[in-house]
């Protein structure tokens, strides 16, 4: 792809990573596992972006965390809090509405065809 497209795609995806994290962390997960899940789902994210995002969401009260020290290497597990779930639900509703609106703007869509006549 070209650089212009990549720049715009990155801007488009930036906000969706927040929503994806809130949705995925409804079940406890740790940072590296979350990075892998995001990558598998098409949300390519750098660790230097993800970890500050997780800390910010935790500071805002949208995530909770706890350390698991039962394994050889301690891991910090994150989980979406009740306020984070409310935020994720609201953002998902907005995303659905925006997606429908964008779809209606596509040339040849029923909405545009009606307005053009």
Automatic annotation (TrEMBL):
Domain of life: Bacteria
UniProt-listed InterPro entries: Metal_resp_DNA-bind_regulator, Tscrpt_reg_PadR_N, WH-like_DNA-bd_sf, WH_DNA-bd_sf
Stretches assigned to the Transcription regulator PadR N-terminal domain: 24-84
Protein name: PadR family transcriptional regulator
Species classification: Bacteria, Bacillati, Actinomycetota, Actinomycetes, Micrococcales
């Amino acid at each position: 792809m070209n650089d212009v497209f990549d720049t715009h795609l990155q801007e488009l995806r930036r906000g969706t990573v927040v929503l994806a994290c809130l949705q995925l962390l409804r079940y406890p997960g740790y940072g590296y596992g979350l990075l892998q899940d995001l990558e598998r789902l098409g949300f390519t994210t750098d660790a230097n972006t993800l970890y500050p995002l997780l800390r910010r969401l935790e500071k805002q009260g949208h995530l909770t965390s706890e350390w698991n020290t039962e394994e050889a290497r301690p891991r910090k597990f994150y989980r979406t809090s009740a306020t984070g779930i409310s935020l994720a639900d609201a953002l998902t509703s907005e995303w659905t509405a925006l997606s429908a609106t964008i779809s209606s703007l596509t040339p040849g869509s029923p909405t545009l065809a009606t307005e053009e006549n």
